[in-house]
Structure formats: C-alpha cells, structure tokens
Amino acid sequence: MSATFVGMPAFPTAAREALGNAQQRRNLRHATHTIRDKRARVVAEVDDWEELRVAGAAIKDHVLTHLDTYLEQLEESLTRAGATVHWASDAAEANRIVVDLVRATGSQEVVKVKSMATQEIELNEALEAAGIDAWETDLAELIVQLGHDRPSHILVPAIHRNRAEIREIFLREMGAVGEPAPAGLTSEPRELAEAARTHLREKFLRAKVAISGANFAVAETGTLVVVESEGNGRMCLTLPETLISVVGIEKVLPTVADLEVMLQLLPRSSTGERMNPYTSMWTGVTPGDGPQDVHVVLLDNGRTSALADDLDRQALRCIRCSACLNVCPVYERVGGHAYGSVYPGPIGAVLNPLIRGTSSAVDKSLPYASSLCGACFDACPVRIQIPDLLVRLRTRVVDEKRGGLPSGEEIAMKGMAWVLGDADRLERAQKGSELGGRLLRRRTSLGRLPGPLSAWTDARDAPTPPEETFRTWWKRERG
Questions:
Q1: Are 158 and 17 found together in one domain?
Q2: Angle at which helices 259-270 and 22-44 cross, to 10°
Q3: Long-range CB contacts (< 8 A, 24+ apart) of 370-373?
Q4: pLDDT band at 89 (very low <50, low <70, confident <90, very high)
Q5: Which band of pLDDT confidence, cut at 50, 70 and 90, is reported for residue 5?
Q6: Which terms under GO biological process does the entry name (predicted)?
Q7: Least crowded by CB within 10 Å, which of 116, 229, 321, 443?
C-alpha cells in the first residue's frame, strides 16, 4: 500500500524539504505548464466560457443551499433503481461499511476506480487492515501504489515522477503483486502503458468486487457519473459482480440536464480536452448487465460543517478538476506532498481545514500556503473565491490561537475607530499630538518604541508628531 499523510510536518517544513528536490521541481514545472497550456487553448475555443462558469457556480450553489432535499431525492432514486444506499457521517463509519460489504461477498480483493473520497478516508489502509487487497487501476494511482508513495496531484497523482522513475518502479514492484513488467521495458510511454495494461488485466478478470467514487450524482434519476481517460474505470464498473461507490454528499446535481454544463467545464479545466475519453454513467442495477449488487455510500466527513457559512460553502462547489493547482506558483515549486493531504494546492489549502478543522499543525499552516495572487480563482470553472477563503481561514487560525482574547492590533483599531468617530474627540487627540510634537521637537524620530510596538519599529522609524496639525494651521490661516 502507499504511504499515508498521517504525521506529516506543517507546510513550511515540508515545503522547505520539497524545494530541495530539483528533479521534482523540473517534473512539476513541465507537467503543470503542459496541462495549463492545453487548457488555455481549449477554453479559448468556447465563446461563452465565462457564462458556463457562472452557470456551474449557480448549479452548485442551488444544490448546496437545498442539499437535504436533493440528498433525499437521490436516495429515493437510487433505491428505486435497485441500489442500496448507506450514510456515513465520518471516515471511520464509511470504512466500516465498505469493509463489511466486501467481507459479505467472501472476496479478499477489490479493484478500484480512481477516487479522491476513498483516499480522503484512507479506505485502502482500512481494507488492508481487514486482510483485503485493494488494487488501484488508474495508471497514475497504480504508479503511486507500486512506489509505496503518496499522491501529489488531484488529477495526476504521480505528477512528481518522470518516465525513468516510473520504469524503475514497474520493474522493481510489479512482479511482487502480479504480472511482472517485461524485462526489456523502456521508458517510452507506450511501453509503460502496455506494461500497466498487462499487469491489470488479470486483476480485472479475477475481481468480484469493485470500488469507485463519482464525479457527479444525479438526484433526479439516481445516476452516478465517472469521467476518466484510460478505460480502467469502465472495466471496474462493468465486470465485477458487486460495485461499491463512495460519494461525497456535495457531488449531487439536480437533473441530468445539469450535466450539460459540468461536462463542458470539467474536461477543459482538468485535462485540457474538449471531452473526456470515457464518460461512464450507471443507474442502479440492470438485470443481466454489469454488477448485480450495487451499493452507494454517501459520505459527509466534515462537509456539512461548511454549509452554514455562505463563503465557506463555496469550497463545496469544487468538481476536483485541479485547474487551480496547475496555475499556482506555490504548488508548482513544492508539489502536493507538502500539503499533508490527498487534496493539495490552493483548493486543498481550503478544503482540508474546512473538513478536518484547524487543530493540527498541518491544517493551521495550510491557509498560509498561498501568495494570494488570485490565479486560482481565474482558473476555477465554478468560480470558487479561494483567496477570500484563505484569508478567512487565516483569521480563524489567529483567533483560535488567541483563545478569544482580542489582539493588540484589534484593540488599537477599535480605539482609533472611537477617536475618529467623533469630531470633538479627534480634535482633542490632535491637540495632544501637537503637545507631544513640541516636547519632542529636537528629535527626528521616536526610536524603538516599547512593548508590542517594538516589533513595528524594528523595521521602520517612528516619526515624531508634528508641532502643528492641519486643523490648527487651517484655523490660523483661514480663520
């Protein structure tokens, strides 16, 4: 199994280490700029791209505002179509449900479609602890799993690896868990893909249980949607007898018609393609065709905590396209591992503290893992105000550190507001400053100020107050 993010250091420490890896920086720059350039070209083809972004944001906001209603409708539609619906409030409950479902089949292994939700809850580790092998079938996820590594990108989890490194991983690891890589394997993409295809084929044909996520879940019909580029998802969704889908509750869409907008936004923003090579949709059970035992686990795991606030709720619009990662100057240099979660980059710096809270050192540091340049908002297909969310989370971290006590800055600002809020108080304060200016007229600077003001004067001179204010000068000259 791949390593987990448990015990990761805070972002500044992890980022400093990542910056020292020159090979990784080169890999990241090449990959992110390639995807970024492809995205720019296909987005430029769409005359109404901004209108699509607005429509996508509106659809997600409508769903999130009425999430209880649409989740109930989704459950009814899924049940009517022959699926069994399970509700999981947190990761532990979701893992318990999935492990019990797999055990009930008598199977000791599962094949998996790439899923951020299952990575979020660390399902692979829970299955391993239960004696169940979980095989990743997405090429990038397979590379991460065989390399005992961690994902570093939402769309391309092995973006930090180059072809030579992937070849070495395949040659070293494949034979230990299945069909080995050919002895003469080169680093050509075609040969690497063929080695992965041969390795996975026996697992597809043997597996009785598959586990997936979903990009979208349509409340109207109970239809789940997975988009992918390799065809591995379709193998998992059709061959096994049992299919278990772990779906975040924010993935709901009201109607099939809403897919028209999302399936234009997602591929262009994620892979820089006009449409995904494979878009799979399934609705419950179809007798004699595909899995006959279908389960859907609807996962909360901290999502409802973000619903109450209008700004925090925006983070749940995310359709996991990774566009914000590919334009982020911070992510490009440090990569995904530094963020300490399966959700890296700008959206990860928002999602992780919202879902997990800010009690850990990692989550406290993530809101500061950004230059606030705004490129993430410009790239986001559903217009999430990521910079605003990061500033809000920074405020939350600072407030929690103070334990409810006001900061010196806050006290000073409130004092200034009180003085500036009344003309008489302001005039008296100005007269006091004139007195101070006359007493200190022989000094050009106040020097280093005492107490909490010392940090401010360490980097700048504090000028002496003027001997005469503008108000006094005006009265004298203009009467």
A1: yes
A2: 140
A3: 370/328, 370/330, 370/346, 371/329, 371/330, 373/329
A4: very high
A5: low
A6: lactate metabolic process
A7: 443
- Mean pLDDT value of segment 1-6: 56
What is each CA distance from 359 to 10, 93, 303, 402, 423, in whole angstroms? 12, 21, 17, 13, 44
Residue 59 has which token pair? 């659809």
Strand order in the sheet with 109-112: 84-88, 293-299, 242-248, 209-212, 109-112, 133-136
Q: Please indicate, yes or no, if residue 417 is contained in any of the structural domains.
A: yes
- Is pLDDT of 1 > 50? no
Domain count, the chain: 2
The letter for the amino acid at 163 is R
> Which has more confidence, 306 or 448?
306
What is the residue range of 439's domain? 413-478
Domain-located, residue 314: no
Q: Which of 160, 85, 91, 120 is nearest to 4 (CA)?
A: 120
CB 82 within 8 A of CB 285: yes
Name the pTM for this structure: 0.84
For residues 479 and 474, give the distance between their C-alpha atoms in angstroms, rounded to a whole number.
7
Q: What is the CATH number of the domain that holds 60?
A: 3.40.50.10420
Q: Is residue 457 part of a domain?
A: yes
pLDDT category, 329, cuts 50, 70, 90? Answer: very high
- Same-domain pairing of 299 and 425: no
- CB atoms inside a 10 Å sphere around CB 446: 15
* Final residue before a domain boundary, out of 304, 324, 350: 304
The predicted model gives 365-391 an average pLDDT of 96
pLDDT in tens, 231-263: 999 999 999 999 999 999 999 999 999 999 999
Domain termination residue (choose one: 248, 282, 304): 304
Q: Counting beta carbons within 10 angstroms of the beta carbon of residue 22, is it exposed (0 to 12), middle (13 to 18) or buried (19 or more)?
A: exposed
Token pair 């180059």 is found at 162
CA-closest candidate to residue 367, choices 343, 342, 348: 348
pLDDT of residue 6: 59
What's the gap between Cα 226 and its chain centre? 18
pLDDT score at 253: 98
Q: Token pair for residue 180? A: 């080995």
How long is the chain? 479
CA 122 to chain centre: 15
Dump pLDDT digits (tens) for 49-66: 999 999 999 999 999 999
Identify whether 339 is part of a domain.
no
Separation CA 300–CA 284 (nearest Å): 21
- Both 290 and 424 in one domain: the answer is no
- pLDDT interval class at 461 (50, 70, 90): confident
